[in-house]
Amino acid sequence: MNKRELVDAVAQGADLSKSGAESAVDAVVEAISSALANGDKVTLPGFGTFEVRERAARSGRNPQTGEAMEIAASRSAGFKPASALKQSLNG
């Protein structure tokens, strides 16, 4: 499902115009992104939790040259599905 299909599904499910649904989807994505940028967790009961995960610095190898290199520490967004979502996926 891409963004357009998601907007169409939200418009139909919430009885909104497509432009209203697109604004709602954009607002949700922006709110989640902003919260994660501030280091906060976003929990949606029955769906899951978005959180920031820290990756430690580590050594690696350049796959083209085989040369050793240092990979810097970084932060990444992560998602942990709620048990209700897991159960709906696994029947």
TrEMBL record:
GO biological process terms held by the UniProt record: chromosome condensation; DNA replication initiation; gene expression
Stretch list, region Disordered: 72-91
Keyword DNA-binding: yes
SUPFAM superfamilies assigned: IHF-like DNA-binding proteins (SSF47729)
An example Gene Ontology CC term for this record: DnaA-HU complex
Swiss-Prot/TrEMBL keywords: DNA condensation, DNA-binding
GO molecular function, one term: structural constituent of chromatin
Gene3D superfamilies: IHF-like DNA-binding proteins
PANTHER family: DNA-BINDING PROTEIN HU (PTHR33175), DNA-BINDING PROTEIN HU-BETA (PTHR33175:SF3)
Annotated family: Belongs to the bacterial histone-like protein family.
Protein name: HU family DNA-binding protein
Biological source species: Nocardioides ganghwensis
